[in-house]
Amino acid sequence: xxxxxxxxxxxxxxxxxxxxxxxxxxxxxxxxxxxxxxxxxxxxxxxxxxxxxxxxxxxxxxxxxxxxxxxxxxxxxxxxxxxxxxxxxxxxxxxxxxxxxxxxxxxxxxxxxxxxxxxxxxxxxxxxxxxxxxxxxxxxxxxxxxxxxxxxxxxxxxxxxxxxxxxxxxxxxxxxxxxxxxxxxxxxxxxxxxxxxxxxxxxxxxxxxxxxxxxxxxxxxxxxxxxxxxxxxxxxxxxxxxxxxxxxxxxxxxx
Length: 255
Description:
By secondary structure, the chain is an alpha/beta fold. It has helices at 11-20, 37-47, 63-72, 88-96, 111-139, 151-163, 171-178, 182-193, 197-215, 220-226, 232-243, 247-254, and strands spanning 2-7, 28-34, 51-55, 78-83, 101-104. Helix 3 (63-72) links the parallel strand 3 and strand 4 (78-83).
């Protein structure tokens, strides 16, 4: 659900927005309302809404000052400003603060809903782009392996590629296969890849799991076993930490 905060000093307008808008149809919910900028600021800090519908002219603190403070705090929430004043200076202030839109009161039937949907769609599209970029980063070899590698690090990478599906793969086993001490291998591996060996193994396993889940032939528990995890709950936790979604969610999205 898309979280909405409504801020307006005119109680009839505020209640009209809250009560007469079909928020369920928009897949939204009003999490709080406020009668001035001070209350709105506190509500925004507390509820972290996705969108604030806010009057500009209000007592105690106007909408512009409220949004200025939120931006200074690093809050990038979307905002639709409402005002009965067509003074362009207010619109300019709203634009400088990255307001999503600017509606003049009284707005026409359906105008607010249309604007909310536009903001919601924009935010969801941005999130999908971010998810896609993150997924590509995880799947990309270049994000893990950078530049030329020494003989031992190259051999360690190859060992992991061939044995990552084994439950008991470890730094000790890799070091023994190369005839090195665990400490020396760990040092040069981290220096040349920016990853510890265990972190690289985990990332390699999850990257492999993502590719298997895209296939959709395998169940999540089968994929977990194929990439070296006995405990599916632990696998799901690690997968979500790296990929941003659970294995089931990722597989559903890939269909």
